[in-house]
Write a structure and sequence with these properties.
Blueprint: H1 3-9, E1 31-36, H2 52-58, E2 66-68, E3 80-82, E4 85-91, E5 96-101, H3 115-126, E6 147-154, E7 157-162, H4 169-173, H5 187-192, E8 200-206, E9 210-215, E10 229-234, H6 238-246, H7 260-269, E11 274-279, E12 282-288, H8 298-307, H9 310-317, E13 322-323, H10 340-347, H11 353-363, E14 372-379, H12 382-396, E15 400-407, H13 409-418, E16 423-429, H14 435-443, H15 457-468, H16 472-488, E17 497-504, E18 508-509, E19 527-528
Parallel strand pairs: 1-10, 14-15, 14-16
Antiparallel strand pairs: 2-3, 4-5, 5-7, 6-7, 8-9, 9-10, 11-17, 12-16, 13-17, 18-19
Helix pairs in contact: 8-11, 14-15, 15-16
Length: 530
Amino acid sequence: MKRWLWITMVLAVSTGVCSSARAETPKYGGVLNLMQREELPQGLSIHESSTIATVWPASPCFNNLVYFDPMKPVETPESIIGELAEKWSWQDGYRNLVFFLRKGVKWHDGQPFTSRDVKFTFDLVREAPDAHGKLRLNPRKDWYASVEAIEAAEPYTVVFRLKRPQPSILMMLASGQSPIYPAHVPLSDQRNRCVGTGPFKFKEWRRGEFVEYVKNPDYFVKGRPYLDGLKYVIISERGTRTAALQAGRLDAAGPGETTKPIADQLKAAVPQMVLTRVGSLTSPNLLVNHTRPPFNDLRVRRAVDLAIDREGYTKGVLQGAGIPGAALAPKPYGSWGLEETALTQILGKPDGRKAAARKLLAEAGFGPTNPLRFETQTRAIATYVDLASYVVNELKQVGIEITVKQLDSVQWYGITTRKEFQLGINISGYGVDDPDAILFENYLCTSLRNYTGYCDDAVSSMIEQQSQELDRKKRLALVQQIQRKLVETGARPTVAWGIDHFAQWPRVKNLVPHHSLYSYGRMQEVWLDR
């Protein structure tokens, strides 16, 4: 039996403390100052958010049932440890997943944690008929579409009953996007403050300035956290926040915020700065709206896809901090993506793609005497604007003239969710490197995060099929077949997969950046050496 399946079938036990050996003895005390790139668009409510701008500053407040080991940068089934679940077991051929919960855990307001909270949380997310409440936005509902019922008959045992086998549900439960909420706290309260079981308790959110936490003295993991507190300093301008990090006013960057040029600048100015090249599971891509002209025409979608020089973007704009790919991240930063040779088979050789794009546009009725012109949207975030500038220039070379409107994050999510756009220039961040998390969320017809309106019943059926496949080689073959179809139909053109150069001062210990930027924000193991 494959180890990646075997590891999930046995009873898994964890103390909640990473078992990795440490060369240094941790010190207690101090407040860690962290970079926050923008105001929190959905407040502190992780389950209502699709952005790292919420997950990063909210993660220390919460716990999951299970979580990826904070000391291991590559997130795999083998790196999953228990948080609120002490152990778990698969039963009935991957149709029942049983969690045995930790006893004696308290919410930050002193109330006891029980299985009722787990059921409340995931009934809410999957929008069960008897759910107590409704999320304002629900981007990950489709992660849990296979869950038929959640049973919490005993206070410290909870059972996820599935309609079909789905081994990967454990990976999604381990994502930083899957915290447990308290059943007794109104959802509206969680947006403005957070009541969790996590290592840090909410202190203050001063809008436009900072989010601040203090140590949870009643945390269930003995001796944790090490820090007295955390402060997420909100700095919207890229140069200003880089200067704050360089000057030592910030101890560490935010995930995905250190480009190669910034890393070079920091290293030149502060040679002792610790820079870690790591995958971020972020993907610059083009949201082509299949429900509106001109992108309801396959020829136009394909033309736009062919027009973008991926190598020019990764080598020029990203300065090597990116790799080409399709809907899923390729090796070495992912496990499921198409390699560049497979993309070349579909798209043709790079030096012939722009000519092919012009030909397709001509067939669709666009050319020098009738150029395609429209307004596109992107978020008013530096990395998005960098991508947008590149796309404008690339499309101009094939006769497409676009203007770019920059939106704040609240506007952006409103417009994309309602599909009130023709082309969105986007950078997607994904919670876990698994086909179920990415394909269900972005390519099923009914998903809230299927911003493009792409819908293909045959592909949806294949997505369901790969989710149930227990043989990893067979599953990989299915997943790669799905990705080829997505590229061929111009479903959501992927420009690249990004690489971060996470920056932190050497005084920061045990803050290990992961290949997914969503799952290393707990701060339970972090300490300051000063």
